[in-house]
Fold UDP-N-acetylmuramoylalanine--D-glutamate ligase.
Amino acid sequence: MIVILGAGESGTGAALLAQAKGYDVFVSERGTLAEKYRQVLQEHHIPFEEGGHTEEKILAAELVIKSPGIPDKAPLVQQLKAQGTPILDELEWASRFTDATLVAITGSNGKTTTTLLTHHLLTHAALPYGLAGNVGQSLAKQVTAGHQPGYVVEMSSFQLDHIEAFRPRVAVLLNITPDHLDRYEYKFEKYIDSKFRITENQTADDFLIYYQEDPVVREELAKRSVAAALLPVSLADVLPEGAFVEGTDLRIKVGKTDWRFAIDALPIKGKHNLINAGAALLAVALLGADEARVRQGLQTFRNAPHRLEDAGTVQGVRFINDSKATNVDSVKYALDAVPAPIVWIAGGVDKGNDYGQIADLVRAKVKALVCMGTDNQPLQKAFGSFGMLVRETASMADALRVAFAEAAAGDTVLLSPACASFDLFRNYEDRGEQFKAQVQQLQSTQTTTPS
């Protein structure tokens, strides 16, 4: 019997694939099943439980497919490991039943944007790849439904932790900065090892696209043996092959492909998005996309919400929703991309952040800091001596009121929290939606005049 731990998108898809391949399947969900997944399991007569785990049944499994949201330190997972029960990720499970081309994208920041852009460009190039992993539908569900020529898969470190033979034809490693260290015994090297697992099954016939100016990636590549052909993305050097900036263009050069795209015309802005665009364009070039169709695709791409999303303008004050920025490195990219003066809204559940890496940007571009959270001491400690206005708030409505009052026409109010959202919000999406709702309310009333 195969047991599926967690009945979200990945777990339900894994259950469907297991059933389709003739296995006895049991799904165990500790929380409450979302109605759409309950209906799927019932329609396919897949047995399940919710509201807790029946340990005896789970420990009797011959194979467990675990949701990436369940940490390895969970007692039940530890028991499974101790008795030698194989534990897989849904992506590993699905990859065993398809010979489709896999494009796998990871990184501490930028992976969703890069995944969506890669998939969008392939679609417009008449290469019908599926979209899976952290975005799109479960890979296992898509494999169950029928064959696609390929899949573009966003992969977190949690998913990479439980692969065995998963082999991407094209792997993308954007960057590695400290994140989720609570899942890795607060050891950065363990998190690094997890990210590099994306390369471990690749061969000389495969490709690894990476950002060469990322110091961790560069250092690790110098000491690791990676079988795949290496293709760098660079903002600093003109390269013989790869994606790189040349003058005012982003140039994609690999094999017989030599494309140039005006940077100002790209649909995503900022240096970090230049890296993301370079990686995506390099990937689609490797997969044989037609240049004219790629150019058309660039014109119609819209990024996922909560990533440097334009939330509107009120009396000359621009509002940017970057709620997805849950670590300091993401905020660094945002501060670099957004023009000064900035009224910065930050805060939430601090993950042991090192704010030193953005100190110079904050000094140069931020005129006021609006702290939003139940414990703003880390932000106060990091920036309280900078001489700028620092205000305390404990709700989105209060944060927007204070930020708008401190902004002048021509300023930007930037929500880029550097922290998790769980002190005041359900998730980063809820935080971003509340931000946009407050901006809309300002737009409809405009009762407060900025100073």
About this structure: Residues 428-445 form the longest helix (18 residues). The domain at 309-445 is CATH 3.90.190.20 (Protein-Tyrosine Phosphatase; Chain A). The chain has a mean pLDDT of 95. The two ends are 66 Å apart (CA to CA).
